[in-house]
Amino acid sequence: MEVVIVPDARSGGELIAEAMAQLLRRKPDALLGVATGSTPLPVYEALAEAVRSGAVDASRARIAQLDEYVGLPADHPESYRSVLRREVLEPLGVGMDAFMGPDGTAEDVQGACRAYDSALAEAGGVDLQLLGIGTDGHIGFNEPCSSLASRTRIKTLTQQTRVDNARFFDGDIEQVPHHVITQGIGTILEARHLVLLATGEGKADAVAATVEGPVAAVCPASALQLHPHATVVVDEAAASKLKLADYFRHTYANKPDWQGI
């Protein structure tokens, strides 16, 4: 596993955006897997700036969703489809016809999960999947003790997650859905390149468990150790619990093997 330690969140965003840009120059119709939340915003902002400056053309890129609320209309401003349209597709000049995501409003949610897994495979698979990490080591909505072989499926949100997400719904927890569809860990591991971004001291324990701990369901992100090409980009605060931090600084020196995508 490559571990790249950067000075701050902006530097991490710029580094990963350049990896995406390199991929799009080699493969203009690459399928990029994207995540929501505040952590990946510096990535999207840096990549959008590269598009505006003419450094890269993302118009032929395809975008795949990591997770989605169940029961929330696709055009609801807080559906993850809407969030990604605002934060990723529109700034990159990518049309909704190039967007892939699970149908959170389907009558048969389980069938929608299976259909999304099949659609990703039929599209040739995700070329680069961007991930965040929770303080408990979760990726997507795969909470601790999720199966490391899990496929896209429905998950029940914890009360704390609903409380945390209420800020996006005018502070009203009753508006926050109880369930989500998430790519499973097994599905995530099928992407050709996994890139995890973590910033802040609050993520330090989870990063250490992911990189240096055992592969265990109690830390779902530790499954990245099983992947042939996983890159973890962390700022100094998130790297503060790594025993091998100096080794990683010397080995990768902000120059990961993006060409292995």
From TrEMBL:
The record marks 146, 153, 155-156 as: Part of the allosteric site. Pathway: Amino-sugar metabolism; N-acetylneuraminate degradation; D-fructose 6-phosphate from N-acetylneuraminate: step 5/5. GO terms for molecular function: glucosamine-6-phosphate deaminase activity; identical protein binding. Allosterically activated by N-acetylglucosamine 6-phosphate (GlcNAc6P). The keyword Transport does not apply. Residues 11-225 form the Glucosamine/galactosamine-6-phosphate isomerase domain. One of its GO terms (cellular component) is cytoplasm. Keywords: Allosteric enzyme, Carbohydrate metabolism, Hydrolase. The active site is at residues 67, 136, 138, 143. It comes from the Bacteria. Pfam families: Glucosamine_iso. Gene3D superfamilies: 3.40.50.1360. It catalyses: alpha-D-glucosamine 6-phosphate + H2O = beta-D-fructose 6-phosphate + NH4(+). GO terms for biological process: carbohydrate metabolic process; glucosamine catabolic process; N-acetylglucosamine catabolic process; N-acetylneuraminate catabolic process. It is an enzyme of class 3 (hydrolase). Its EC number is 3.5.99.6. Belongs to the glucosamine/galactosamine-6-phosphate isomerase family. NagB subfamily. PANTHER family: GLUCOSAMINE-6-PHOSPHATE ISOMERASE. HAMAP family: GlcN6P_deamin (MF_01241). Catalyzes the reversible isomerization-deamination of glucosamine 6-phosphate (GlcN6P) to form fructose 6-phosphate (Fru6P) and ammonium ion. This is Glucosamine-6-phosphate deaminase.
